[in-house]
Every structure is written in C-alpha cells, then in structure tokens.
Design brief:
Blueprint lengths: L4 E4 L3 H8 L6 E4 L2 E7 L5 E7 L7 H15 L3 E10 L10 E4 L1 E4 L3 E3 L4 E3 L4 E2 L3 H9 L24 E2 L5 E4 L10 H10 L3 E5 L2 H8 L6 E9 L15 H18 L14 E2 L2 E2 L13 E3 L3 H11 L5 E4 L21 E7 L5 H9 L8 H17 L3 E5 L7 E4 L7 E5 L12 E5 L4 H16 L36
Parallel strand pairs: 1-4, 1-5, 5-14, 6-11, 7-12, 12-13, 18-19, 19-20
Antiparallel strand pairs: 2-3, 3-4, 5-13, 6-14, 7-10, 8-9, 15-16, 17-23, 18-21, 21-22, 22-23
Helix pairs in contact: 1-6, 2-5
Length: 486
C-alpha cells in the first residue's frame, strides 16, 4: 500500500489535534488511520497518521518512521506537534516553526578539555512544503485553528516563522533552562537563525535518509524552554493551542502543495520548487514486471512458463481463454490446470457481462457465453481438473501457477468495455517480487472456490441445493442452447 503523506506526531494529544482536521479518517491497522484529503487542485491525497503517537525522543521517531516507510512508502513525511521556541530571537508562544534545517545537539565527543559535537546539521528535503508555507504567511490561515488563543499579550494571532536557513535543535533532552549547554550551543553556532528545539526531528531525518524520502517539520511553540514552563500557573497553558495550530498549518500545507513527482534516477536527489526528486521508484511501484497489451503475446508466454509449473488455479468469466493448446491439457504436459472457477451459466451476471463485451455490429449473446462455459467445463473435467461455478461476477480474470510454492506467479487480465477480449491488457505478478500482492489473489481465489458449487455430471446443471439462488437448473429446459464440443 502506498500513501501520499505520513504525518507523524509524538504524543496522543498532538495526534488528536491532527485527527480533528482530517475528513472521515478510517481505522487501518496497528494504530494507523488513513484519510483522503481534498487538495486545492481538485484531487485527493491519502494521509496516514499513527494515532497513538510514536512517543518522545529521536529513537522512537526513527523506529516508527522507518517502519512506516518500509510498509506504506509515503511520498512525503511531515512531523507535527509542539516545540520550544527561543523568545530572545523573536519567537512567541503559539508561533509555528517551519524550518529547513535540524541540528541534532546530543551526539558529541567528550574529552577532558572540551565537549565536541560532531553531528552535521540535517537539511530538510521537502522544499515545496517550506515554499508553500512562505507563500501563505500573509493569508489568514490561522482562522482554521479550533482552539482559543490563551492570550494576546505578544501577538493577536500566530505567525509562521521561516527564516533563511532557519534551524531548530533536536535531541532527547527536554530543555527547561535558559542557560543549558544545549541552548547556548545552538545560539552560538546559528545565532539568530536558531528558532527553537524539539525532540523527534533528528530521528525522522535519519529514518528518511536511506530511502531519500522527503520530509519536513511543522511544529508550534508551547513554551520558551525556561524554568517558567514548570510553573503550575503557566504549565501547559499553550499546549492545546500549539498542537492545534501545528495541525492546522500541516493540513493546509498538504492541501495547497502540488503533488510530488518521483524521478527514477540514482544520481539525482536535488530539489526544485514544486517538485521532489527521489533517487529511485519505490519498490511497491515496481511489482508489475511484465505488461502485455493484449493476449497475443501472452499465449506464447503462458505455454512456455506453464511447462515449468506443477499446478494452475484459474478464475474466469467464461473460460474461453483456457481453450488454448497446452494450457489445460495434461496429455501434453505443458500445463496442469487443477482448479477452475467459471461464472455459473445460469447467473444473471452473464447478461451484464455480455453487454460489457458487446461491440458495434457484433453482439455477444448470453446463449453463446453459456455454451462456452459448458464446453470449457467439459474439457477441463476431461483432464480431471476440478471445476466450480460461481453465481456472480468473478471480477478480473486471473490465474495462479504454483500458488503454494515460493516461485509462484500469475497473470491478471484487465477487462475493458466494448473491446474484444483478445485485446484486453494484462500483467504478470510474481510471488517473489511482491508477496503481499500475490497473496491477495490467492485469498481471492480461495474465497471464490469456497463460495462456488460443482456442475452436474452432464455439465448442464449444478449440484447446489434446491433452495439456492442459482438459476442453472433452468438450463436443462433449454438443451438446444448448448452445443457441446465433443
């Protein structure tokens, strides 16, 4: 599964603030929720959040981000929530920091003479997010904040703080001392460009680096990182407002930012405004290794590959495609069709299916398709293949070769209305390439097989109970409609 955005928060209250800004979030799995966010360009972007929050600290953020990138392959990662700000550099409570650089202040070499920090400043790579933030600074974006502002002593409304090469420190220490070594280090190294500090940005940066996943940090200031933050009368006064302000801006950035183009180049990781280049296509986009525009070229491939297989499971509408030399005939040894699911000849779906495949001046009748289904059923049973009839639409036609083996593969056909079935495109899937995708088709076939019924010995009617909805028995009254190929 691929998503457009993964928005990470550290604490549950940060996550809940974001949750309230997303339309109709849906519970996915393992604490993940997903929402479809409409953009200003008219499309929708999938937004994934981890609702419990990853927990404070760089290690927790790194672990959760790495796992999410591996499983969901987000195009962009956003880190949002609360942070501390440096009031001596003009940062006020409630302001939102959208910064371009992260300074990890924890890693250092300690000698008897000095403490030497040796970690380089990390550059935020989601440049378009920062550019959009700069563009909307002059708008009334803050009207989307749901929480009331605690007071207006410093400002009547929050500002988006972005400065040229603005830096925010990141580490596992929660600073509450104006004279702490970490605070002095940040201000000495970056001077007025140092905006504040938080605890997860460095972890996100290190997690995104191996896959070159673009990321940005959007956090609002809840305190100034001084001893005042522990004053009972001031503690957490701005917490809910800051979390809501950050969530508001993050949501608007995702709505306004144009989609991120992925560029398959191992040498380019540079940024352009409006585009994000990735070193390579995500693995999840490369599961389709072989694509066929029609069935003609596929016939050769089927025979060639089937010679190496042991068993074939197939699910088709009518099964006309399996009427190919070497596909199901065990006598030739070129294929081993063991399980075949076809649409029941008495299913009402055949009428809709015939209309879908009908073309101008060339109609495909339900009688013709019923005849094909019965003919293919008889031929398959002659080879001792197990055949089931499904009283409903099969969906897309597909077959699986050696589904229970590690080298299993399959073919998925894409039906297109009013186009000859011989011209329908399709693609090859491999278990070794994408086990998750392959398993979906295995599960689909198992479900079709379990919910299907066996044809009668004369292949004209099925063995389903008398009170079943299947209409195949009616075919016995219309024997003339079937012309078996004996």
């Amino acid at each position: 599964m691929n998503v457009d955005y993964f928005v990470l928060t550290a604490l549950p209250d940060e996550s809940e603030a974001l949750f309230k800004h997303l339309p109709e979030p849906r519970d996915l799995t393992e604490g993940y929720w997903i929402s479809d966010l409409e953009t200003e360009q008219g499309g929708f972007r999938s937004v994934l959040i981890y609702r419990p929050g990853c927990g404070q600290g760089t290690n927790a953020a790194n672990s959760r981000t790495s796992y999410t990138i591996t499983k969901y392959h987000p195009c962009v990662v956003l880190l949002t929530g609360i942070a501390g700000g440096f009031d001596e550099h003009g940062v006020c409570l409630g302001d939102v920091l959208v910064h371009g650089f992260i300074e990890p202040y924890e890693l250092a070499k300690v000698t008897p003479e000095k403490r030497e920090r040796r970690h380089p400043t990390e550059s935020v790579t989601a440049g378009p997010v920062i550019e959009v933030a700069k563009a909307i600074r002059s708008t009334e974006w803050y009207k989307g904040i749901k929480k009331s502002r605690p007071n207006n002593r410093e400002r009547a409304f929050p500002e988006i703080l972005w400065r040229d090469r603005g830096v925010v420190g990141s580490g596992d220490k929660n600073l509450a001392n104006r004279n702490s070594p970490e605070r002095r280090y940040l201000q000495k190294k970056h001077k007025e460009r140092a905006l504040g500090f938080e605890m997860e940005g460095a972890g996100v940066a290190s997690a995104c680096k191996p896959t070159a996943t673009p990321y940005a940090v959007v956090k609002a200031v809840q305190d100034n990182g001084t001893i005042d933050k522990d004053d009972p009368s001031l503690k957490d006064e701005w917490r809910e407002y800051a979390a809501d302000a950050a969530a508001t801006l993050a949501t608007q950035l995702m709505q306004k930012c144009s989609f991120f183009d992925r560029k398959a180049s191992d040498s380019e990781a540079g940024m352009e405004i409006g585009k994000i280049h990735r070193p390579s296509l995500p693995k999840r986009l490369a599961v389709i290794e072989e694509f066929y525009c029609d069935r003609e070229g596929l016939r050769i491939e089927v025979v060639k590959r089937s010679k190496q297989g042991h068993e074939v499971w197939a699910a088709f509408h009518t099964g006309i495609f399996v009427d190919e030399p070497g596909f199901y005939s065990r006598k030739t040894g070129e294929a081993k069709l063991t399980k075949l699911v076809l649409v029941c000849p008495g299913s009402r779906f055949l009428l809709q299916y015939s209309r879908m495949v009908a073309r101008e001046k060339e109609k495909v009748t339900t009688e013709y398709m019923r005849n094909v289904i019965v003919t293919i059923t008889g031929k398959a049973k002659d080879t001792k293949a197990s055949v089931r009839w499904f009283d409903g639409p099969v969906g897309v036609s597909f077959w699986l070769v050696d589904a229970e083996h590690e080298d299993g593969w399959g073919y998925v056909e894409v039906p297109i209305a009013a186009i000859k079935s011989l011209e329908w495109p399709g693609f090859i899937i491999k278990k070794s390439t994408d086990r998750q995708l392959y398993q979906k088709f295995v599960d689909s076939f198992d479900s079709l097989w379990k919910n299907s019924h066996r044809p009668h010995a004369n292949t004209k009617v099925c063995d389903c109970p008398k009170d079943a909805r299947c209409e195949a028995r009616q075919l016995a009254k219309r024997e003339q409609a079937f012309r078996s190929d004996s």
